[in-house]
Amino acid sequence: MQPLKAIIFDVDGTLANTEETHRQSFNSAFDEFGLGYHWSEQEYTDLLSISGGRERITAYLKAQDFKVKGDFNLREFALRLHQRKSEIYRDNLIAGHKGLRNGVLRLITEAKQKGIKLGIATATSKSNVETLLRHNLGKDAMSLFDAVVTCDIVKDKKPSPVVYQFAIAELGLTPETCIAIEDSTNGNKAARAAGLKTVITTHAFTIDNDFTGASLVINQLGEPDQPFNVISGKSYGASYVDVGLLKNLLNEQKKEIAETWPDNVIVIAK
User: Fold this and answer.
1) Angle CA(90)–CA(93)–CA(98) in degrees, nearest 5?
2) Among 24, 66, 67, 168, which is most exposed with the fewest C-beta within 10 angstroms?
3) pLDDT of 169 over the 60 cut
4) Residue 162: is its pLDDT beyond 70?
């Protein structure tokens, strides 16, 4: 049995339901720049297939055949636009009192009590992560995490596994002893490509995503009085995600083999 040594979290949509705040912030930035664009919920859902806010803006402007005025090229313009969007987003996070998703604080607290390391692997910026965590967990929130890997460190976006590979290396562990908690197709693909098992917590923007290979897909991490709904996978009788369930998921293939192996068969290894 592999021991569970670390839980690695995505941020947006996983730690908190921030995607709608992001969408509104993009639209506010478009207004400030006088672009006349407005991303609807459905349009933003489709655009989430592109990881990274600046990359999302760049792809969208290219699709609109947008011509940059002045001395900037498209890449530089998208960077300026995204920087302003991020400033608006952080202000909106605080003003909107955006809290963590159900079960996140409970799981973080339990993991710390049991000596399990915590990591973050995200396509968002360190500033965005700090704003969210400090707003919810206090000024020392970042110290709860043993590895925080953001787009400031890793430029390759999910579904590239690089952000998870970097987080695993920062934790000083191997993939077999870690589990990832994600919310999207690209996040699941990235974690799985890095050799991690995954738990997916869906939300309005990702409920219809393809989560092939995930160990467990649920609507939330849950609480003792607010159980999760299982979309796919095996919950081992649990109604909310805790360290015990994550240990079962980490070792589920070995458990299933052991459960189905005939009792009267003896294996002799040479």
Assistant:
1) 155
2) 67
3) yes
4) yes
Q: Verify that 208 and 87 share a domain, yes or no.
A: no
Report the distance separating Cα 97 and Cα 93, nearest Å. Answer: 6
> Does the structure show a pLDDT above 50 at 208?
yes
Q: Are residues 63 and 120 in the same domain?
A: no
71 and 107, same domain (yes or no):
no
Q: Is 30 helix (H, G, I), strand (E, B) or coil?
A: helix
pLDDT of residue 1: 82
Dig out the tokens for 124 from the structure: 């968002």
The pLDDT assigned to 4 comes to 98
Q: What residues have CB less than 8 Å from 35, skipping those under 6 apart?
A: 66
Find the domain containing 78 and state its range.
19-95
The residues annotated with a catalytic role in the active site are 10, 12
Q: Based on the structure, what is the number of domains in the chain?
A: 2
Of 181, 189, 263, 215, give the one whose Cα is nearest residue 11: 181
- Whether residues 50 and 116 share a domain: the answer is no
- Say which residues have a Cβ less than 8 Å from residue 134's Cβ, sequence separation at least 6: 141, 142
Q: For residue 192, give Cα distances in angstroms to 181, 187, 258.
A: 11, 8, 23
Residue partners of 269: CB distance under 8 A and separation at least 6:
none
Q: Which among 236, 224, 231 has a CA at the least distance from the CA of 188?
A: 231
Q: Which of 95, 124, 149 represents a domain boundary (last residue)?
A: 95
Q: What pLDDT score does 257 carry?
A: 33
- Residue 270: which pLDDT band, with cuts at 50, 70 and 90? very low
